[in-house]
Amino acid sequence: MVIEIQEALLKGRKEEVEKLVDQALSSRIPPAQILNEGLIAGMDRLGIMFKNSEVFIPEVLVAARAMNAGLAKLEPLLVRDGIQPKGAVVIGTVKGDLHDIGKNLVAMMLRGAGYRIIDLGADVSPEKFAAAAKEGRADIVALSALLTTTMIQMKNIVETLRTHGLKIPVIIGGAPVTREYADQIKAEGFAPDAASAVEEVGKLIAR
Asked: Which domains does the chain carry?
């Protein structure tokens, strides 16, 4: 049953994922098992396919929509059973930048990997990142920028977090962003794409 959920998710079949999750629950398969072996395992496979250029952004978005539908059925049961997310991630596009497709993709894939996502949207100020990280008890802060003119805001955000006494790891990404720039602004993580972001967040939390 959980393998069928994976396959339906990879094909982006939202209604089929919902139906299969219902059937799995009726068969007394534990919600955590459906989550880990069905939805999360499916998103892991999707991430590998995306990195290998076997699927592209439209397919990932459709699969993520199917994943969200399955997750919506499981969340109340996971909360009831005391199943904790892997960690909390505050994510947003930096101040002055309105691009959000890449950021949305990362948020969806992180959610599919079992993280609690606090999505601040686009054009987010350093102070708003700091406040959300504090209030949401974030484990990671993820920053996106698509313009060379706005990526300089990432440095301001890292500095603002530290000024507020928040030693939360920061991961950055976006078209103009490099590992060298991450090192330069003292951001702990860098990801060139959404699948890499999931891996990088996992590494940072494991530390």
From this structure: 2-80 (1.10.1240.10), 88-206 (3.40.50.280)
Distance of alpha carbon 183 from alpha carbon 189, whole angstroms:
8
The span from the CA of 107 to the CA of 110, in Å, is 5
Joined together, the tokens standing for residue 169 give: 């790891």
- Residue numbers in the chain where pLDDT is lower than 70: none
Q: What angle separates helix 14-26 from helix 57-80, to the nearest 10 degrees?
A: 30
Specify the pLDDT at position 79. 86
pLDDT given for residue 57 in this prediction: 87
Q: What's the confidence (pLDDT) of residue 121?
A: 97
Structure token digits, residue 180: 């060298």
Q: How far apart are CA 59 and CA 161, in angstroms?
A: 35
